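Structure tokens please, single chain.
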Amino acid sequence: MSEQGPWLVVGLGNPGGQYEGNRHNIGFMVADLLAERVGGKFKAHKSRAQVLEGRLAGQRVVLAKPMSFMNLSGGPVVGLRDFYKSGVDRLIVIHDELDIDYATLRLKRGGGDNGHNGLKSITKSLGPDYLRVRAGIGRPPGRMEVADFVLRDFSSTERKELPWFVDRCADSVESLMQDGLERAQSVYNS
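Here you go.
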């Protein structure tokens, strides 16, 4: 078997303290927990991302948080792919998903971007065939605009469940790396 690059695990979010607790930043939250599991700290990388190299689930991994804004995530992800020479088959993107109930998780490979600007940017740069950890945030209440909803912090009720949910998302990333998509889906898509 030929030598393949490391797994590239990208958590999506917006840089800056004002976005830290936003629904749109759940990808960053999961990446931060995975960094704790690896036992390292993120460092700036020339690809315009914060990066941590290490081992997870017994395999080489590069954890990344693009430091562009969400709708420009494709550029940093392409830079990381080129730098680490990882194929799109070893790319896992963690992102918020409106069409899934809060604290519900879905794993898949490929598909559309469903109006998610981060996915739209990555797909435009790399094609759609990467793995996705879709972290459900639910739909906005009433007539609230989607943009306002995703850029709001999780509610106090949601925050009670958030540590468990972020932990489950992180577990699913390790399962994708170790067990493959079908086995991980059988556990986490239930």
